[in-house]
């Protein structure tokens, strides 16, 4: 499996400054950490969403992925429908 991950250019430059130029000040390390955590969160949300939409899985597996996705984006329980299909 050969997947790639894209990061913002500024985050790349911060990584270069820290790892190649040894400029590891606290602000730069904090920016890198926040950017990478945000990227990991986005990747997890995408994986949950893709699993939820995968029709080869059982309805229970899809429903669990749907719940994880909605939890990860902060969707309130009161705004969700209970089944995989929308009520319209």
**Approximate strand percentage:** under 5%
Succession of helices and strands: HHH
Distance between the termini: 38 Å
- Provide the domain count: 1
Radius of gyration: 18 Å
Uncertain regions spanning at least 5 consecutive residues:
none
Largest sheet: none
Give a verbal description of the structure.
About 60% of the residues lie in helices and about 0% in strands. The longest helix has 28 residues, at about 25-55. It has helices at about 10-20, 25-55, 60-70. The model has no long low-confidence stretch (mean pLDDT about 90). The chain has one domain (about 10-75). Helix 1 (about 10-20) packs across helix 2 and helix 2 packs antiparallel against helix 3 (about 60-70). With about 90 residues, the protein is mainly α.
Quick structural summary:
The chain is 60% helix and 0% strand. It is an all-alpha fold and 88 residues long. The chain has one domain (9-75).
Main traits of this protein?
mainly alpha; single chain; 88 residues
Topology diagram in text:
Blueprint lengths: L8 H11 L6 H28 L5 H14 L16
């Amino acid at each position: 499996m050969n997947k790639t991950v894209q990061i913002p250019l500024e985050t790349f430059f911060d990584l270069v400054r820290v790892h190649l130029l040894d400029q590891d000040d606290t602000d730069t390390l904090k920016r890198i950490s926040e950017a990478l955590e945000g990227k990991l969160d986005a990747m997890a949300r995408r994986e949950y969403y893709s699993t939820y939409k995968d029709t080869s899985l059982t309805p229970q597996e899809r429903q669990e992925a749907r719940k994880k996705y909605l939890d990860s984006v902060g969707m309130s329980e009161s705004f969700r429908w209970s089944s995989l299909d929308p009520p319209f």
